[in-house]
């Protein structure tokens, strides 16, 4: 954790994030030993103002390029976390992003034992880091019926964004989480996820 960050700064960032504070994001989304600095501080100052791109440490990450069209599904009837992770892993395999879907799924399931990936408002962002991943990507599914998922608010999850990260892709991992979260903290975005009908509409949100 960045030693320059003061307790008051954390409170400022938490105030900016109505559905997921930085400390909880770190605790639930990434295992503690992987936290280098608060994820959102890569993209925001302590008052919640988005930083100029030059201060973010790289070029802007394009979520549309990461979210493969063939890895987007709406209103699937899946009854468990295992079924969701299996389906999304297979989607990533068919898209040529994950070479071995079973190995990748096991990597995701292992991370689920280290930290919970369910946020609030029915959203989960599981992640898998494995050598079988050829490039960073995101797979998404909106479930027809919300399912049980270890989440911050203890409520079922309907929207799952699965992050696939190549081995040694720590910096990409953090930037993917940050960029995706910057969109999902907006209430209008979360509400729209329940209503959109096309992939283009999803791309428009992100």
TrEMBL record:
A Pfam family per the record: PTS_EIIA_2
Alphabetical GO biological process terms: phosphoenolpyruvate-dependent sugar phosphotransferase system
Domain PTS EIIA type-2 residue range list: 65-206
Keyword DNA-binding included in the entry's annotation: no
Domain of life the protein comes from: Bacteria
Claim: Transmembrane is one of the keywords in the record: no
Keywords: Phosphoprotein, Phosphotransferase system, Sugar transport, Transferase, Transport
Family annotation (CDD domains): PTS_IIA_fru
GO MF, one annotated term: protein-N(PI)-phosphohistidine-sugar phosphotransferase activity
GO terms for cellular component: membrane
PANTHER family: PTS SYSTEM FRUCTOSE-LIKE EIIA COMPONENT (PTHR47738:SF2), PTS SYSTEM FRUCTOSE-LIKE EIIA COMPONENT-RELATED (PTHR47738)
Protein name: PTS system, fructose subfamily, IIA component
Origin species: Faecalibaculum rodentium
